[in-house]
């Protein structure tokens, strides 16, 4: 990661955004250097809703990735694009079709079955419009999602989600664990996820993508 200077690749990211965290890991695994562009999701109603940023991502979400003359949105197709167009040292997907399916299954459980239910905009709506408890809501849906992931891992896990090489499933799992911890999910019920997490935490590509080391992280995070 480079903060400042100019490189050809720019990642629009927020330190604590799990979707940005996914892409940061993927970029690191592919060995792609990038310039970090902070988008503050909480300042003055959210920089993600500014006219300028909406030109990059019309949904008003981070991440957005400027690369190869394009601006890409949506973390899952971004990871696919990186894998297909930037060969690098590692592949983010297994080559075996069934394991590739399993890898995508884990990603989808997180990408469409878990994170959207605990996204900032949803939580605000639950609290402000419906008077709901956003922490309990998040805890419920993250627990449900991670239970499904834990079940899939029983068939696929090695050191990491799919065997012994990190894949895009790991890029999605680690940020979701980060969110689980934020919302105080009881992680003791997920022994397989915990074992994989311990292994992934050792990898430099994952360390360098952690929210706490991002340029826009508060100093005391
Ligand atoms: N499916 C999108 C979701 C992106 C998303 O939900 N981003 C969140 C941060 S993780 C966001 O920008 N939230 C701002 C908001 O809700 O206003 C992706 O995977 O990139």
From TrEMBL:
<feature type="domain" description="GST C-terminal">
    <location>
        <begin position="96"/>
        <end position="221"/>
    </location>
</feature>
<dbReference type="InterPro" id="IPR005955">
    <property type="entry name" value="GST_Zeta"/>
</dbReference>
<dbReference type="InterPro" id="IPR034333">
    <property type="entry name" value="GST_Zeta_N"/>
</dbReference>
<dbReference type="GO" id="GO:0005737">
    <property type="term" value="C:cytoplasm"/>
</dbReference>
<dbReference type="Pfam" id="PF14497">
    <property type="entry name" value="GST_C_3"/>
</dbReference>
<keyword id="KW-0963">Cytoplasm</keyword>
<dbReference type="InterPro" id="IPR040079">
    <property type="entry name" value="Glutathione_S-Trfase"/>
</dbReference>
<dbReference type="GO" id="GO:0016034">
    <property type="term" value="F:maleylacetoacetate isomerase activity"/>
</dbReference>
<comment type="pathway">
    <text>Amino-acid degradation; L-phenylalanine degradation; acetoacetate and fumarate from L-phenylalanine: step 5/6.</text>
</comment>
<dbReference type="InterPro" id="IPR010987">
    <property type="entry name" value="Glutathione-S-Trfase_C-like"/>
</dbReference>
<dbReference type="GO" id="GO:0004364">
    <property type="term" value="F:glutathione transferase activity"/>
</dbReference>
<comment type="similarity">
    <text>Belongs to the GST superfamily. Zeta family.</text>
</comment>
<dbReference type="InterPro" id="IPR036282">
    <property type="entry name" value="Glutathione-S-Trfase_C_sf"/>
</dbReference>
<dbReference type="GO" id="GO:0006749">
    <property type="term" value="P:glutathione metabolic process"/>
</dbReference>
<feature type="domain" description="GST N-terminal">
    <location>
        <begin position="7"/>
        <end position="90"/>
    </location>
</feature>
<protein>
    <recommendedName>
        <fullName>Maleylacetoacetate isomerase</fullName>
    </recommendedName>
</protein>
<dbReference type="GO" id="GO:0006572">
    <property type="term" value="P:L-tyrosine catabolic process"/>
</dbReference>
<keyword id="KW-0585">Phenylalanine catabolism</keyword>
<dbReference type="InterPro" id="IPR036249">
    <property type="entry name" value="Thioredoxin-like_sf"/>
</dbReference>
<keyword id="KW-0413">Isomerase</keyword>
<dbReference type="InterPro" id="IPR004046">
    <property type="entry name" value="GST_C"/>
</dbReference>
<dbReference type="InterPro" id="IPR004045">
    <property type="entry name" value="Glutathione_S-Trfase_N"/>
</dbReference>
<dbReference type="GO" id="GO:0006559">
    <property type="term" value="P:L-phenylalanine catabolic process"/>
</dbReference>
<keyword id="KW-0808">Transferase</keyword>
<keyword id="KW-0828">Tyrosine catabolism</keyword>
<dbReference type="InterPro" id="IPR034330">
    <property type="entry name" value="GST_Zeta_C"/>
</dbReference>
<dbReference type="Pfam" id="PF13417">
    <property type="entry name" value="GST_N_3"/>
</dbReference>
């Amino acid at each position: 990661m480079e903060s400042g200077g100019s490189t050809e690749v720019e990642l629009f990211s927020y330190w604590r955004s799990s979707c940005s965290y996914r892409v940061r890991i993927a970029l690191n695994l592919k060995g792609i250097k990038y310039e970090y562009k902070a988008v503050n999701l909480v300042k003055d109603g959210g920089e993600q809703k500014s006219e300028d940023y909406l030109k990059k991502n019309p949904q008003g979400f981070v991440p957005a990735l400027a690369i190869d003359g394009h601006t890409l949105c949506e973390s899952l197709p971004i990871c696919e694009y990186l894998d297909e167009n930037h060969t690098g040292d590692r592949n983010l997907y297994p080559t075996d079709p069934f394991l590739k399916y399993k890898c995508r299954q884990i990603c989808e459980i997180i990408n469409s079955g878990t994170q959207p239910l605990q996204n900032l905009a949803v939580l605000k709506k639950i609290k402000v419009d419906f008077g709901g408890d956003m922490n309990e809501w998040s805890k419920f849906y993250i627990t449900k999602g991670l239970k499904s992931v834990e079940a899939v891992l029983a068939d696929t896990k090695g050191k990491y989600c799919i065997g012994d090489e990190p894949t895009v499933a790991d890029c999605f799992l680690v940020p979701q664990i980060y969110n689980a911890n934020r919302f105080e999910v009881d992680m003791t019920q997920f022994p397989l996820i915990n074992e994989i997490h311990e292994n992934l935490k050792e990898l430099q590509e994952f360390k360098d993508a952690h929210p706490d080391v991002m340029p826009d992280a508060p100093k005391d995070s």
